[in-house]
């Protein structure tokens, strides 16, 4: 049911249109949204080289980050073909048959928390990248509404970057304000029943990241030669037969680069937000 041709593609178009309308209302009618460097994101979504996948990575401030962060003016939020795929928590978005159908049609891929980077649906995400699609991830792995440095990232995003047949374009994004639109502890420790209004949402898009995977792989092999850490559960049939220690080194290095870039962008975004006030 997550296929593009399910019932002629009509359910997906309807869901993407409805969700886009909701996101547009929250971002631009109920609240005020401003974007820095949004054209870079739009261009990569619309006209990146054929067959080259795109991975966007961002901080995770609320359950509304996706789809509302794509609803800024000028973004093709109603185009089902251009719409992102996104990794979504199975225990939140796929609780029952109805929710599962809705989110699958809406191009969400269920991820089991604690299921590891080689769980079944990560292979589905890899298939989408192989198709040259756009995938969004929240590499911190959970919502954090504090004004705090980017936390240690989960390795799932790094593994997808390393395993994709064509190295994806990786675009970092930092946003502020969603924690006020959908606070986690609004009343009695619960979220509000509807998005709040009269808030300011700021979205700062960075520049594409480049990863020299052959060089990173060689470095991982070198660093892992003296390591004996192994669970015996990681496959050796990927990445040219890298053992588990080398895979861990590679994913850690990629994740650290993404985290550093996101943190630098977060620091820049603070000056951007202040300048807009």
Gist?
By secondary structure, the chain is an alpha/beta fold. The protein is built from 10 helices and 7 strands.
How do the helices and strands line up, and which of them pair or pack?
Elements: H1 10-30, E1 32-36, H2 38-47, E2 54-58, H3 65-68, E3 85-89, H4 90-93, H5 97-105, E4 108-111, H6 120-130, E5 134-137, H7 156-163, E6 169-176, H8 178-181, E7 200-205, H9 213-224, H10 244-276
Parallel strand pairs: 1-7, 2-5, 2-6, 3-4, 3-5
Antiparallel strand pairs: 6-7
Helix pairs in contact: 7-10, 9-10
Number of β-strand runs: 7
Count of alpha and pi helical runs: 10
Shape descriptor reads globular
Distance between the termini: 45 Å
The major sheet is characterized as:
7 strands, mixed
| Rg on CA atoms, Å | 19 Å
Structure, explained:
Helices cover 42% and strands 13% of the residues. The chain has helices at 10-30, 38-47, 65-68, 90-93, 97-105, 120-130, 156-163, 178-181, 213-224, 244-276, and strands at residues 32-36, 54-58, 85-89, 108-111, 134-137, 169-176, 200-205. It has a 7-stranded mixed sheet with strand order 1-7-6-2-5-3-4, sandwiched between helices.
What keywords describe this structure?
single chain; 277 residues; alpha/beta; seven-stranded mixed sheet; 10 helices; globular; lipid metabolism; membrane
